[in-house]
Protein: SGNH hydrolase-type esterase domain-containing protein
Organism: Thauera terpenica 58Eu
Amino acid sequence: MLLRSIATFFCMLLFMGTAQAATIMVWGDSLSAGYGLQADEAWPTLLQTRLEEKGFRHTVVNASVSGETSAGGRSRLPAALEQHEPDIVILELGANDGLRGLPPKLLAENLDAMISAAQGAGAQVLLVGMQMPPNYGPVYTRLFAQTFATVSKARKVPLVPFLLEGFADQPELFLNDGIHPTADAQHKVLDTIWHGLKPLLGRH
């Protein structure tokens, strides 16, 4: 009887060790969808490779859509949460709101709603910020950038302040449109994301 109990215990441990890996869902726009790149060049694909190299058993689901706004992402999110059941959501939306000059207040409301939905589904959230170029005016660019910090603080979620940190002023690292990072720049984006993501990985 004792031997059978021990055998059952070790079977349970084995099952736990082979349980389904945690899921990371990237919820972004063209900056995460890999616009203008090969599928294996985008930073979410590079993230999957890095996770495997470092021994993490997480699976990356890239549910990003080029051209997506925060409003569009908000409307699509419930179905994606139900489908993928993510443990971590990397929320990278807002750039298209800024490019269209949409009110930062609206962006804040949509980000807040998405974080609330993700947390309600049991996921941790990493919020990724964006900044607008100076030609949008000092008032708008300041309010836009502050929106991410404000929502992050209110919702108590970690923040990557700027997705393009460290190379936004280097035109050679962008495609001809001047907006989307090249394949060479994807590694820099990944390093920026990794800094904010790594503390969350040990919880799954």
